[in-house]
Each structure stands twice: as C-alpha cells, then as structure tokens.
Amino acid sequence: MSIRLPRGTQDILPEDAVVWQHIEKIAREVCQGYHFEEIRTPIFEHTEVFTRGVGDTTDIVQKEMYTFKDRGDRSLTLRPEGTASVVRSYVENKLYGEANALTKLFYTGPMFRYERPQAGRMRQFVQFGVEALGSANPHLDAEVLALLIEICNRLGLVNLKLVINSLGDKDSRDSHRQALIHHFEPSIEEFCSDCQSRLTKNPLRILDCKKDRDHPLMKTAPAILDFLNDESRHYFEQVKQTLDQLDIAYEVDATLVRGLDYYNHTAFELMSTAPGFGAITTLCGGGRYNGLVQEFGGPETPGIGFAFSIERFILAMKAEGVTLPERPKLDAYIVALGDEANQRGAVLLNELRKQGFRVDKDYMDKKMKAQFKAADRNGATCTIIIGEDELANEQAVIRHMGSGEQKTVAYEAIVTELGESIKGGLEA
Ligand code: HAM
C-alpha cells in the first residue's frame, strides 16, 4: 500500500513554496509598517480555549475541531483559528500591562478544521492574521481594514469587495436575539436539528446554517442593523466615515453575521470578484471582539482583527492573472572534471557562497556535457569551468550562459570577476 497525504492537506513543493514565501514576506512587511509585531502561539491548545473563545454553538466547535486526549488524559485541540489563542496568550502573559496600552500583533501558521475539502477549503490551511488589542477607537477598525487592503494591493489583488456590518453591543444583540427567536420559533420544526437547538442557545447562528440557507424565513429574518442602539449606531457611523476618508470602498451587508461567536460591533469579509474565482469567494474575515479578553480572565479590553488563508490568496492571485514569483535562479554553476578539479570547485563554491552568490556544483560525477545541462536546468547565469589547463594555471573560465562569451581569470579574481559578469555580461 502506498501512503498518501491525508484528505484536505497538501504538500507545498519548492515551485509553490516561493509563492508562499512572497505572500508571507509582503504581509509581514506591511504589518511592520503599521507597527504590528509577530506573535507565535502553539499549534494545539486546551480544548477550552476554543469552546469558550470561538463559542460552543458554532460549526467550528461542534463539527470541525481536531480534538484528542493526550497521554495525560487532557483534552487538546489543533487550533482551528488564531484569535482565541492570541487572546489566551495576551492574558496569560499580561501583555495588557505594558506601558503602551495598545498591543498590535500578527501571526501566521497552520490551522485545522474538519471540513469537506474543495478548492479553497482545506483541513489544514495557513492563516495570516492580525489582532489589535486595547482600544475601542473606530479609527482602529479602519486602520485594520486599510492594512488588509494594502496587503492585497501589494500582492496585485484588485478585484475585491469589502463587505461590512455591525453586530452592535450586547444590548443591541439581545434585542436582535429576541426578534430572531420570535421570527423563527413558529416554524422551527422546518429547520435542521442543529438550528432547532440553536433557537434558544444562540439564534444568530441559524443565519449561518449551511443546510437551511434557502429557507424563505432566512431572507425575511430581522437584520441586526435595525436593532442597533444609539451608541452602536454611532460607532458604526464613525467606522464608515473613517473608511470613506481613507478611500476604502465597502458595501454594508446587514446579513453578514460571521461564523464565530466572539464578534460585536464591526464585522467584515473581503471577497474576490475576479472572474473565474471558485465557488468560495471569501478571502478574509474579521471583526471586533470586545468581550473576549474578559472571557479569558483578563481585564476589560477591546480587540479587533482579521485572518485570511494563504491558500485562498493564491487562488485569487491566479484568478486575477497576477505574475507569480518563480524559483530563484543560480548565479553560477561550477563545472569541474576529475577529483582535483572537484576539490578546487568545492573550495571555490564555499568562497562564493560566503560572498553571497547563489552557486552550486555537480555531486554525481557527471560528464562535462551533463554538467552544462544541469547549469542550464537551474537557470545559472554563468558557469565556472575548471578543466585540466585551468587547474595547472590556478585559473578558471567564466562563461556567460546567455551570450556564450567567456574569459579566463585567475583563481583569486573569480569573486570579483563573477560579480562583474553577472552585472554587465562578459567583456572579453
Ligand atoms: P474565519 O472567517 O473563520 O475567521 O477564517 C478567516 C479566513 O481563513 C477565511 O476568510 C479564509 O480565508 C480562511 N479559511 C477558513 N477556513 C478555511 C479552510 N478550511 N481552508 C482554507 N482557508 C480557510 C477566523 O478564523 C477569525 N479568527 C478571524 C479573525 C481574526 N477575527 C478577528 N481576528
């Protein structure tokens, strides 16, 4: 039996890994420009982090977690998302005690959800996310969205639609909750068993149900925006105003509720509108979570953040025809024949690498022709040839592969000469 990778996972091979590195690099750079710093948390946590954080009536907690007992009989879970872990760490490490009350963090790493795999939906996927903790200023909501749009633009993603909504504060959500119960209760037996138990526990989750999506009562369900109290309405207005000032285009969608329980006030999703992008169009989701830090035993601390998966960003970049980075080419490939020349080659290789050149040589005792072929295959700009004559004279030949021009140079001049050759082509 041949062993294959588990369903919903993938190998990222070298030609794809360069695209991943590119996205991670740009996202990191933009975050650093916005003064966000990296945090790394464990890949597994105590299960309670997510049942409490994400919410135990959500699909993620009820159906999608990879939960297991360790040998000490503790219930652990492979993280399905990053926010709950970051907040757990924020509280555990008392980051709220730092002089600068605002803590701006970013993270990247694999997340795990037992979902039905399809294009853009994996069981292991990599999220890049940010969390800003410590301020309930609407400008911060706009800053977080500006950061997201900046990452997208730097990656060449332009066919985007930003959808925002407000889930209001606790009072607003309580009135909405009553209205939802009132709306669904008379016909609740027409809904799936999950929705039936959601009715009293968390009726907002009914709006998120994949099975009952097409039930007519879904379309007529009361929208949270109609239940916002003055304070929540005012907050949302300020967020929208700041987005307008920053020239960030958005649409308000009163039906956007998000699949995690911790949200209040601003909630948003970024969709790809690129033609040819698959059925799942959400590239990124996020929002405000003002009660989550208290949920983990910390002081009252508001927070806001988002996460996107690199898998979906790559799909969107491909759908938009963005030129993707290719594997880096070699500066030079050393072609050497015989033991002595190979030894000389090894020393040279070492020296050139220390100077920052990207170089390689043959380790398979290949014939000259095969070595040139390998140089070609690796896209080497130059070859450095060490034959018998060169060896005797302490020299090597540098050949520019594009022009075919070559020159013989003294061994100790190779570092400088190679630099020249790469820069300007060869002058005989
Ligand atoms: P989420 O909407 O569950 O939010 O996921 C955020 C993003 O992760 C999605 O928009 C999508 O890009 C990606 N994603 C989710 N599931 C999968 C999957 N199975 N395969 C591939 N990509 C996937 C959160 O996770 C929140 N923690 C976001 C957040 C941060 N809110 C505040 N701060």
From TrEMBL:
Keywords noted in UniProt: Aminoacyl-tRNA synthetase, ATP-binding, Cytoplasm, Ligase, Nucleotide-binding, Protein biosynthesis
Catalytically driven reaction(s): tRNA(His) + L-histidine + ATP = L-histidyl-tRNA(His) + AMP + diphosphate + H(+)
Domain of life assignment: Bacteria
Binding site for L-histidine: 81-83, 113, 127, 131, 258, 262-263
Enzyme Commission number, as recorded: 6.1.1.21
BP GO annotations: histidyl-tRNA aminoacylation
UniProt xrefs under SUPFAM superfamilies: Class II aaRS ABD-related, Class II aaRS and biotin synthetases
Broad class of enzyme this protein falls into: ligase
GO cellular component: cytoplasm
Gene Ontology terms for molecular function: ATP binding; catalytic activity, acting on a protein; histidine-tRNA ligase activity; transferase activity
Annotated compartments: Cytoplasm
InterPro entries assigned to the protein according to its UniProt record, in alphabetical order: aa-tRNA-synth_II, aa-tRNA-synth_II/BPL/LPL, Anticodon-bd, Anticodon-bd_dom_sf, His-tRNA-ligase, HisRS-like_core, HisRS/HisZ, HisRS_anticodon
Aminoacyl-transfer RNA synthetases class-II family profile domain location: 1-325
Quaternary state and interactors: Homodimer.
Similarity annotation: Belongs to the class-II aminoacyl-tRNA synthetase family.
Protein name from the UniProt record: Histidine--tRNA ligase
Name of the gene encoding the protein in the UniProt record: hisS
